[in-house]
Specification:
Blueprint: H1 2-11, H2 21-25, E1 69-72, E2 80-82, E3 92-94, E4 97-99, E5 107-109, E6 115-123, E7 138-144, E8 151-156, E9 190-198, E10 201-202, E11 208-210, E12 213-218, E13 221-228, E14 250-251, E15 262-271
Antiparallel strand pairs: 1-15, 2-5, 3-4, 4-15, 5-14, 6-9, 6-15, 7-8, 7-14, 9-12, 10-11, 12-13
């Protein structure tokens, strides 16, 4: 009797193993499983208007697309004037290239622009001389806001084995932003700048609502990644903003003693 009583006592402490959750929640026989939540309609996130306009790309990535304004095609300077007095530009056009005439001074576009995509090619002469800032110096002013060198400058320079201050080498936003890398080709070879320029926006009193931003690819390599500018380019002192609406694009005739550089294949696409 004691063994039987002990067995009953032990059975009272045995825990019945729980059933799997799925088994616990299984619907009674004959009852359907609960419906899955609806997936939604993919058309709810499809946008059909406005339809982007068709733009025919150039035969190569360097060629102007169908909606571009060609600023220099190797034939003439009809789109350019002298910065100092707005007379016809007098740089040298030969063999489909545009070569700086340092005596004639800076030149700029006849038309003014706000936001844009710009393509420009430039070449340091193969026999370039000098060192530092005195070697193949020029500049692409993304917005020319006055006479001389007023505006926002993307530096042009021979930076192939030519040491200078980092925020003054080729592809720098002069005295403001060092390029991410040095993507220069050697003198005698053509180089490219592809630029996205977002112009600054000003209030009526001249204060800045939105600063200028710039993206630059040098020879296909990203060197300025949506950089915010602190104002116009200054050789001495900190950059400052000066109110403007639209502005020409300017090329610099730098006074360094090295042989002049050349440009070709310049085109622009205006952006909203």
């Amino acid at each position: 009797m004691r063994n039987a009583a002990l067995g009953l006592a032990l059975l009272s402490f045995v825990t019945v193993a729980p059933q799997p959750l799925a088994a616990q929640q299984a619907p009674p026989t004959g009852q359907a499983a609960p419906a899955q939540p609806p997936r939604g309609n993919p058309a709810d996130t499809e946008v059909w208007e406005p339809v982007p306009k068709v733009v025919t790309p150039g035969a190569t990535d360097a060629a102007p697309p169908s909606d571009a304004l060609v600023l220099f095609d190797g034939k003439n300077l009809d789109q350019w004037v002298a910065t100092r007095d707005k007379s016809p530009a007098k740089w040298i056009v030969a063999d489909d290239t545009l070569t700086v005439d340092k005596r004639a001074g800076n030149i700029e576009t006849k038309r003014s622009f706000k936001n844009y995509q710009l393509h420009l090619e430039w070449r340091i002469p193969p026999g370039v001389t000098g060192a530092g800032q005195g070697r193949g110096n020029s500049g692409l002013f993304l917005a020319s806001t006055g006479a001389g060198d007023a505006g926002y400058e993307l530096q042009v320079l021979d930076s192939y084995n030519n040491k200078t201050y980092a925020n003054g080498q080729a592809a720098s936003l002069y005295k403001q932003s060092i390029p991410l890398v040095n993507a220069n080709r050697k003198p005698g070879e053509w180089q490219t700048y592809d630029v996205i320029w977002t112009a600054p926006v000003f209030k009526a009193d001249g204060s800045v609502t939105s600063p200028a931003y710039v993206v630059v690819f040098h020879n296909g390599v990203l060197v300025q990644n949506h950089v915010e500018l602190k104002g116009e380019t200054l050789f001495i002192g900190k950059p400052v903003y000066k109110k403007y609406d639209t502005a020409p694009i300017k090329l610099q005739a730098h006074g360094d003693p090295s042989p002049p550089i050349s440009f070709r294949n310049i085109w622009i696409r205006e952006l909203p």
